[in-house]
Design a protein that fits this description.
The complex is a heterodimer of chains A (795) and B (158). Chain A is α+β, with helices and mostly antiparallel strands. Chain A is built from 20 helices and 28 strands. A 7-stranded mixed beta sheet of chain A has the order 3-5-1-12-9-10-11, with helices on both faces. In chain A, α15 packs parallel to α16 and α16 packs across α17. Chain A starts with 20 loop residues before the first helix and ends with a helix. In chain A, 60% of the residues are buried. Chain B has a 5-stranded mixed beta sheet, with helices on both faces. Chain B starts with a strand and ends with a helix. Classes of the chains: A alpha+beta (795), B alpha+beta (158). Chains A and B meet through α1 and α18 of A and α2, α3, α4 and α5 of B.
């Protein structure tokens, strides 16, 4: 399909400041915790302080007698009500064809806690303070069990099992690719380059803590849940069908203004079901808002994999084959999309932007006594990009080749390109983004900058990553075969009102991405109506036909395409109406920028005139079409989209202290057609800082023995601050996505994917003269200093 | 319960609170000024920054009773008769916000910076924002917006 040129080029591509800003800069945003329903009660959860323990008994009597308490509920109440568990949305099968081990994930734990933060009871009271006080009076008698807090511990001989049904703590043992071909490549290789990398475990840390407000309306037997979600329809489906057994049409889920997600607000969390269920129990609306310390131990974490790779290379640097063994931490339970992250969202990206002809990837997923791990900005693709880009640098070094030369030698240049790991890239131009990064980053001036750093006692290094990623995961039929338990289309409605103004209803959800502006630009441009005449509605299952929500950088490419499809239906219906009004054949009517024109004449009807006729159908082709001008479309993409690019990073390392400073960071990305450059740059900037965060500062650390989360607050988790990061230079070079009507690819995650390997390659480049050859993320001053000291000692 | 009186956004208020009530709780729960946000429980994130007697303060770290007799300005009180404060305008123009959750605290901090340190450069601006986390913007456009607002305000006062 050729992309439609925008009907109004003044709209698509315009850097319009966002219309939603007004409410946010004046404090008029409405987030879940801001909502107050009449007679609202407050819930506080009692969470496990232990990583692994049997619950001998729970005594709630004292808590129940505490002032203001309306109810105290435990796993026994949940079991008595026959409430289901939190479901997993993706089934992965092991190599031998068996299903992954899929343990139960109860709303409130009944008999055994499996990670610090596991929810064992809920107290509902008149005020938050009363609930908090009573929660401290719930006595839980634990029998502490040994805990396994890391992949290595979980897989060690005789390790404590997290789940009795998961032998050796293995959830699944999956593979992809041609093992025999890879073995042959290794045998004939000039060299086999080996590298093991660890993906530090990250905590998403959206600044708005999760919150949920449940309301059961007994008079109408109807439930409403207000929640901090990236995908309210998905929450409605999962909670209604699998957890609470509520008829789906009796449950409304609203995700109002949501303060950031980054993946962590995709999943259906126990607290959402708890407040909805508890509201019926106490007969009042029930609100729960996480404290930040709860967020640390109950939001799904990200990454946490160990990958060992072998890359077979020829003498001239041509890649012949790649073999990857990946160990992935699932945590104590399977979060909604946890199993898909190291497999279908990571192993499938192991070709990167290179023509490696044979690839084989094994993924062993393990249970540990830690918080569940799921998608966090990038979700699987940062893991693949980091491994590949570190590996390519290492290969260049071992072959004595230039790092850019080895990349260019192996770039994919012919599209579509079918990779050996199940994807087909539609378009791309990896040379163009690499060249762009070099020019924007003034690569020619690097040597002089390095000398200048040296004169100040600093070690300067430069690093690159040339990555590709996959967004807008699709089509539904394919992902269904791969184990997804949901479709991955998007729904949209375009309603043209009688006066010609337009309401747009999208299943995508904006929690910072700016849909209220960009989607309005898209529809205004497509229908040729003024921007101010288009409003965008999202985040409410009662107002929007359906929706799969926002994740995997899919909003514009999938949700936006659904809007275009619905708008095209409007135009098609409008043509029939216009032809009738103009008394010409439909084939003589042409659509042009908001007007239906009769070919070769000056006769025309505007969209507004057609809309009015559709709602006041006095003179109307009623035997052909119905009145009204509103269309709904479901768009199921034909393929993923494949954003790609080159990130260039320069760092200065202080050899005395090990402190690393990012001094130049350039992102040159191909995200396809851009609707709003201001928003796109903003997405890039945010992703880059999360990438720098992973590379330099952030890591969730569990104590190996006790399974306690040692980085459970901002005191000890390295959130990047303004003073930790530089300003950036971003540039884009668009190749147009070949299979969606907008031509866009997605931008939400590229910063977090491309950046970490560029930063780490830069640090290793800076430290190479000292003999340092390896370093793991995050490259904290301590770690860098130790690496420098060890290298000096070795020399 | 203790009665506290103060000016909030130039209006005199008198509220009965428990002595343990935090200023942010008074603002959000008693006065329904929900523009001031709570993003952490350790005084790090800065989503709750308001002005107390013109100085930026983390309202999660101050008891309501400590604010007795003061003048408090929240994000809701920054615009003047429907006209945005130059900092609000600058955040909008430079796309210095995405999800908007950190924005009120960020703006209140930034306003004090430009008022008290009109010569602050990028480095000083970034240091000043140490107590305000943003997870969406990567700070790039926030810094840009603040420096631009600083220039605008300087031009106006010149």
């Amino acid at each position: 399909m050729k992309p439609n040129a925008s009907q109004d080029s003044r709209m698509v591509g315009d850097a319009l400041p966002r219309r939603e800003d007004r409410r946010f800069v004046t404090g008029a945003g409405r987030y879940v915790d801001d909502l107050v329903l009449p007679d609202q009660a407050y819930a506080v959860l009692v969470r496990s302080p232990h990583a692994h323990a049997t619950i001998r008994a729970i005594s709630t009597e004292t808590a129940k007698a505490s002032p203001g308490v309306l109810g105290v509920f435990t796993g026994q109440d949940v079991a008595a009500d026959k409430v289901g568990g939190i479901p997993c949305g993706w089934l992965v099968k092991s190599k031998d064809g068996t299903n992954m081990v899929e343990p139960p994930h109860p709303m409130l734990v009944l008999d055994r806690v499996r990670c610090v933060g596991d929810q064992v009871a809920v107290v509902v009271a008149e005020s938050k303070a009363a609930a908090r006080e009573a929660a401290m009076l719930v006595e839980v008698d634990y029998d502490i069990l040994p805990a396994v807090a890391s992949i290595q511990a979980a897989l060690s001989d005789g390790a404590q099992t997290v789940w009795d049904q998961a032998k050796n703590n293995v959830c699944f043992d999956w593979d992809l690719g041609d093992k025999t071909a890879v073995k042959a490549a290794m045998n004939r290789a000039h060299k086999v380059v080996e590298l093991t990398v660890r993906q530090n475990r990250l905590i998403p840390n959206a600044i708005e803590p999760r919150a949920a407000l449940g309301h059961y309306d007994a008079a109408n037997d109807h439930y409403t849940l207000y929640t901090t979600s990236q995908n309210p329809h998905l929450i409605r489906l999962l909670m209604a069908a699998f957890v609470l057994g509520i008829p789906e049409h009796r449950l409304r889920v609203v995700a109002p203004d949501v303060g950031g997600g980054f993946g962590s607000k995709i999943y259906h969390y126990a607290e959402e079901a708890i407040v909805t269920w508890a509201s019926k129990k106490v007969g009042r609306p029930v609100k729960w808002t996480a404290e930040r310390s709860e967020s640390f131990m109950s939001d799904a974490h990200g990454r946490d994999t160990v990958m060992k790779a072998h890359l077979a290379v020829d003498k001239d640097g041509t890649f012949l084959g790649l073999c990857v063994h990946n160990l992935a931490n699932m945590g104590a339970y399977l979060s909604t999309f946890g199993p898909s992250i190291p497999t279908y969202l990571s192993a499938t990206l192991m070709a990167g932007c290179y023509t490696t002809p044979a690839i084989y990837v094994e993924v062993k997923a393990v249970f540990t006594n830690t918080v569940p791990v799921d998608a966090y900005r990038g979700a699987g693709r940062p893991e693949a990009a980091y491994l590949l880009e570190r590996l390519v640098d290492k290969a260049a070094k071992e072959l004595g080749m230039d790092r850019l030369e080895i990349r260019r030698r192996n770039f994919i240049r012919e599209f579509p390109y079918k990779t050996p790991v199940a994807l087909e890239y539609d378009t791309g131009n990896y040379d163009a983004t690499l060249d762009l990064a070099l020019s924007v980053g003034d690569y020619n001036g690097y040597a002089a900058r390095r000398e200048a750093s040296k004169s100040r006692g600093k070690l300067r290094g430069i690093g690159f990553s040339t990555y590709v990623e996959a967004c807008g995961i699709a089509p539904s039929a394919l992902v269904g075969q791969l184990g997804a338990r949901a479709g991955l289309y998007e729904a949209a409605t375009v309603r043209v009102h009688p006066t010609g103004s337009v309401s747009v209803f999208t299943g995508s959800h904006s929690h910072g991405q700016g849909h209220e502006t960009t989607f309005a630009q898209l529809v205004a441009g497509h229908l040729g109506v003024p921007f101010d005449n288009v409003d965008v509605v999202h985040g409410d299952t009662d107002r929007i036909p359906f929706g799969m929500g926002t994740y995997g950088s899919r909003s514009l490419s999938v949700g936006g395409s659904a809007l275009v499809k619905a708008a095209d239906k409007i135009i098609a219906k409008g043509k029939t109406i216009a032809a009738h009004l103009l008394q010409v054949a439909e084939t003589d009517v042409e659509w042009h920028c908001g007007e239906f024109r009769v070919r070769g004449t000056a006769q025309k009807k505007t969209l507004g005139e057609v809309a009015f006729a559709a709602y006041v159908p006095h003179n109307y082709p009623i035997d052909k079409i119905e009145p009204g001008l509103e269309e709904t479309a479901f768009y199921d993409p034909k393929n993923f989209t494949f954003p790609a690019g080159c990130h260039l990073c320069e760092v200065e390392v202080d050899p005395e202290t090990g402190v690393v400073e990012v001094v130049n960071l350039v992102a040159a990305d191909d995200v396809g057609v851009i609707v709003n450059p201001l928003v796109v740059d903003g997405q890039l900037h945010g992703g880059l800082v999360q990438g720098i965060g992973q590379a330099l500062y952030e890591e969730a650390v569990y104590d190996e023995d006790s399974g306690q989360l040692l980085t459970g607050s901002y005191l000890n988790y390295g959130m990047p601050r303004a003073s930790d990061v530089p300003s950036f230079k971003v540039g884009t070079h668009a190749t147009v996505c070949a299979h969606n009507p907008i031509g866009s690819k997605g931008v939400g995650e590229v910063g977090a994917i491309g950046c970490p390997p560029a930063v780490m390659n830069a640090i290793l480049d800076a430290l190479a003269p000292l003999g340092v050859t390896d370093l793991s993320m995050p490259a904290t001053p301590e770690k860098v200093w130790r690496a420098i000291t060890a290298a000096k000692t070795a020399q | 319960m203790k009665r506290v009186t103060m000016q909030v956004n130039q209006k005199q208020v008198a509220v009965d609170v428990e002595p343990r009530t935090l200023l942010v709780e008074l603002l959000r729960e008693k006065l329904q000024l929900t523009g001031t946000h709570v993003g952490c429980d350790t005084s790090h994130c800065g989503a709750c920054v308001v002005h107390v007697n013109g100085k930026s303060v983390k309202s999660c770290t101050m008891l309501a009773v400590e604010a007795e007799g003061t003048s408090v300005t929240t994000i809701e009180g920054l615009a003047h008769k429907g006209t945005l404060h130059p900092m609000q305008e600058s955040f909008h123009r430079h796309h210095a916000l995405q999800c908007g959750f950190c924005t009120p605290g960020m703006i209140m901090s930034a306003v004090e910076l430009v008022e008290t340190r009109p010569l602050a450069d990028e480095h000083e601006t970034r240091e000043w924002l140490e107590g305000n986390f943003c997870r969406c913007t990567g700070y790039h456009n926030i810094v840009k917006a603040i420096l631009s607002c600083r220039d605008t305000m300087r031009e106006k006062s010149a």
